[in-house]
Write a structure and sequence with these properties.
Blueprint: E1 2-6, E2 18-22, H1 25-35, E3 45-47, H2 50-61, E4 70-72, E5 78-82, E6 91-95, H3 100-103, H4 111-114, E7 120-124, H5 132-147, E8 151-155, H6 165-175, E9 181-185, H7 201-215, E10 219-227, E11 232-240, E12 244-246, E13 250-253, H8 260-273, H9 278-292, H10 304-312
């Protein structure tokens, strides 16, 4: 999708120019995984016009496999982002109705081709929020992935501007039993029927255990965020695989918060694929998420070397 934002910290009412960025939940994860050296295939449907072509080039330019992206009628989904600053929160306006992807049907997608050579599938809750066809597509994709023995990861990524919490809960109840690894925010647990746990480690670990037992998950990863202001956050995470592994916290001075959870998800999936133990995996993922907050745009452009360097030294000193 396409993101349009006023420059810097300007408000919508002040702006005369909008900056363009391409992104989206699963796309951000695929791009980050490609930059980390994984083969990442992204699946969607893009419109047959210049901005659809630009989105395709954007993904290809970072090494994402776009061979299963469909092209057709419709538009490119938009969202408008007003960056927050200090005590003023960021604001998002979605304009996604009638996008080529939202209008597509599950029958258009060739799952034999999509899953050829794949060992993992990642989805977010933004996909089923886009309409009944997209909800059907998400459920079918997860069923097909499980049938083929793929590891399925899911990030609820609830967006109140796209659907209600009740609608999301009903949908997630069909998707979570097909999930191996849940990746979520400790602040967003109400959509999963639990109270938000914030930065409380004991409550967060208990919530992760409850979710694993309730849905038969292999593991759950919960990011933990302390909101000092729109410009400054504390950021850490838990990875629970019958043992609770907590990452060291970061104090973030935010350049761009969008995509921080996607960067965490990509870092976690990469680390687990490499065979890292739970503690190392969540440290790597949290460092990846922390670095994304310093990068403009939706996707994390950090290399694995930069992530490892941050794990060793959190100071942000100049590298010479």
């Amino acid at each position: 999708m396409l993101r349009l934002s006023p420059e810097g910290s300007r408000r919508f009412s002040q702006t005369e120019r909008l900056e363009v960025h391409y992104g989206g939940g699963e796309a951000n994860v695929a791009l980050s995984l490609a930059l980390l050296g994984e083969e990442a295939r992204f699946v969607t449907k893009l419109p047959l016009h210049a901005f659809g072509e630009n989105a395709l080039r954007y993904l290809k330019g970072y090494g994402v496999d776009t061979s299963c992206i469909l092209r057709g009628e419709g538009r490119l989904g938009l969202y408008f982002l007003e960056h927050g600053a200090s005590q003023r929160s960021s604001r998002v306006i979605y304009d996604r109705a009638g996008s080529a992807f939202a209008l597509s049907t599950p029958e258009e997608y060739d799952f034999d081709k999509i899953f050829e050579g794949a060992d993992s599938l990642h989805l977010t809750g933004i996909t089923p929020a886009l309409g009944k066809n997209c909800a059907r597509l998400a459920l079918l994709a997860m069923r097909e992935g499980k049938r083929r023995g793929l590891t399925v990861s899911f990030d609820p990524n609830f967006r109140a501007n796209l659907w209600t919490e009740e609608e999301a809960k009903r949908c997630f109840e069909t998707l979570l039993p097909l999930t191996d690894i849940l990746i979520a925010s400790s602040d967003g647990l109400s959509v999963l029927g639990l109270s938000p746990t914030g930065e409380d480690e004991e409550k967060t670990a208990e919530a992760a255990k409850t979710l694993c037992e309730r849905y038969g998950l292999r593991a759950a990863a919960l990011t933990m965020r302390g909101h000092i202001s729109a410009s400054e956050n504390r950021f850490s995470a838990l990875y629970y695989d019958k043992t609770a592994h907590f990452a060291s916290p970061y104090l973030l001075r935010i350049v761009d918060r969008v995509g921080g959870g996607d960067a965490f998800a990509a870092g976690l999936l990469y680390a687990l694929k490499q065979g890292y133990d739970g503690g190392t995996a969540v440290e790597f993922a949290t460092a990846a998420g922390a670095l994304k907050h310093s990068v403009e745009g939706d996707a994390n452009l950090a290399s694995k070397e930069e992530i490892f360097a941050l794990m060793k030294d959190k100071s942000g000193r100049v590298l010479r």
